[in-house]
Amino acid sequence: MSRIRDNYENSRCLKIKKWIDGEVDLLASGVEIEAPEEAKEAALPESDLPNPAWQPGMRRPKAAKRRRRNRDGRDIRYFRRIYQLMSVFLCLAIIFILLWTVSYLPAFGNAGNPDNNEVSARYIESGLQETGAVNIVTGMILDYRAFDTFGESCVLFIASCCVLVLLRIDAADGDARARKRLREADDRVFEPKNDVILQRCACVMVPLIMVFGIYIILNGHLSPGGGFSGGAVLGSGLILYLNAFGFKETERFFTEKVYRRVTLSALTFYCLAKSYSFFTGANHLHSGIPLGTPGAILSSGLILPLNICVGLVVACTMYAFYTLFRKGGM
Question: What is the DSSP string of 243-254?
């Protein structure tokens, strides 16, 4: 549930609208543009304007006020036109860069394409010897292309942070409306209380789901599976437990603090482990991490702990998404 803002006058949307209309300069720390005294007088009703005795050579008040109003209107129109032209120019520049990049791609069916070069053959022929992983796909993802996998894990973490910012409900001190919405979002208000069938099924299924998810993660380098698929299974087990027993029981072992610590620790270990691996590989140094015996559970070097890190991040992200969309918090 998204948070309703009462102070629209201080929101960023209104500041952006004022900037588009030329009333606020965002580059000057959001300071509103002060109108000159003449413009302020032009904005006053005619009855409030000073009415000195007209003398020859003086401009008539109505004509001067009309000219000032027309000049201010032209400035705003010019600003809007320039803003629109710059937007169109930016879109055209992006389209040109993308088309220019596509024009340099190799032709379809060319013998020099990446799918026909020695990279794929290196993965298949030397993957087991260099990574120690029986599963070639896992060896490629978490060894040869581990940097891409780290980026995907960071994307999941950033996505969960964005959803947390957009959907979280904060009960600030003295904010009766936020506290009321939190009470309305209570997980036991709109659901059957103590559903015996669901709870008994969860008591049987949740342990099996958790064990199966752990099995997929730990055997990702030996058989089809790995951190992404195993983490999805673990996340589904947590969601089933939450639906059966509610937030109060789930928060006994999985809270927002646990989520932050687990996710941060997993991503930090992943980053440090692969940074060390990249450094030793780029400098042709021996990493000192044994690959083990191919086919054994403790083998493939860093692939096993990296699978565990990815699985934890995926499981926590799935659970966080569900709780935020359902309650507005963990």
Answer: HHHHHHHHTTT-
